[in-house]
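Supplementary Data S3. Sequence and structure tokens for construct A.
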Amino acid sequence: EMIPVLRPATPADAELIAALTRAAWISKPANSSGHRETADGVRANLLESDAIIMELGGEAIGSVRLYPVYQTLEDGSKAGPVALEIARLGILPSFRGRGLNTWLMNEAMMTATRRGIEELRLAVRNDEPGLQRMYERQGFFVDSSIAYSHANPDSPPPITMRKYLFSKGPRAGTEL
């Protein structure tokens, strides 16, 4: 079995990431915004986020985006980032079922840890309970107090989840 290679994306990868996202979203509901991903949209995202591309045997097979989340202080200034928001994590359908999403999630955790960020956040469509369970197995827990900044306005509000990377908060599996 080949070992995946994970690499940071650059703006030159925008078309590749857009194509990977559209292909990974093939089985998602029609109103899922991943179907409408464009290279221009990805380039704009990369101004405010990082992206990681997964390759297997030299072929790009998945990607994920990591957005910094800042805390607004009482005086209106921003502190942080206090968390990384995981978005658009996707693996091409023919490569699913091998645990490869865990590699992308581990890279997201290492990225956060290197930056001293203690929390990951994500959102799951409320019609994808299997996805929610997968993230729960990876240590995320539901927290409806999170405002997810990349929610699709054409879909019902998503289920928001978080994971603490250190001993900062409640242990995974507990509700707030």
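Construct B, processed identically:
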Amino acid sequence: SAVALALIAVLYQAVFFTLARATPGMKYARLELRTFAGQKPARVRRWARMAALLLSVLPAGLGILWALFDDQHLCWHDRLSGTYPRKA
């Protein structure tokens, strides 16, 4: 069941970041992805973010917890992909 849950999470991210550039939760919270240069990320960069998210989650979620210690509160996948969520 853990594998099925992970697969559903990956598919969810893939569908919404490919088609809509944001998940429904991000839209509700009025968040959007931006590159560190302030531009909207291209599809390739959004896919890179999803791959980096897997790397961030796999070591017991340490990549996510890193945001607690980071000066800018960015996770590993933010740094690896060069993108971050911000208020729209």
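Residues 2-19 form the longest helix (18 residues). The CA atoms of residues 35 and 83 lie 4 Å apart.
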